[in-house]
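Notes from the 1:1 (GR / supervisor)

We went over the backlog. Supervisor wanted to see one worked example end to end before approving the batch request, so GR pasted a single chain during the call. The sequence is below; no edits were made to it. Supervisor asked that the structure be written out right there so they could see what the output format looks like.
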Amino acid sequence: MKVPNLDRDGESPRSGVASMVDIAFLLLVFFLVATTIMPRERDLFLEVPRPGTQVEAPPLPIVLELTGDGTVWWGEGASRMPVEAQGREMPGLLALLKPVVAGMRAGNEDEPPVMLKVADGVSQQRFVDLLNALNACEVRTVGMID
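Structure output shown during the call:
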């Protein structure tokens, strides 16, 4: 007859494994209940046009660049042109931008967003003057780009 393998306390070494399995399952259940589940991407609203429908492209943004010397430029790259070099009222910018915004609103079109590219070292007053000129033109959508 074989004698069972007992440790020093007189218990079988297998008896501790059962309680460890119970603890592992309790921890697993606890973490499953305690975690929050993130919403899936399919829960996000996305409107896709039906095939055959004509979709209008959003208006292209108007890019204004304010350089370190305080000059306001209209456009990007080779097509950019200086609009204002000095003065707080910026009449040249107002003369160009007001008709564009008014024409878009009169035609019930979306207003083009104005994107500002501001160089390092521009004075805060010059930046505020540019924002005041955009407000005078009733521009509602302004963004900043690098």
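Supervisor's comment: Residues 20 and 26 are 10 Å apart (CA to CA).
Batch request approved.
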